[in-house]
Amino acid sequence: xxxxxxxxxxxxxxxxxxxxxxxxxxxxxxxxxxxxxxxxxxxxxxxxxxxxxxxxxxxxxxxxx
Length: 65
Description:
The protein is 83% helix and 0% strand. It is an all-alpha fold. The protein has one domain (3-64). The protein is elongated and about 50 Å long. The protein starts with a helix and ends with a helix.
């Protein structure tokens, strides 16, 4: 992976984290249906983010061997 590629994806990840970080505190003020949908979307995002970090770790481990 090139530095430019990694920097591009890190910037995209930072934008996503920022947007999700602003939703979490607002959930308590949402209508129940909207809060449930936002919670599910946040959980899905966290699931995908964790999966991506596992994949990055696997590639780093592979490169170090």
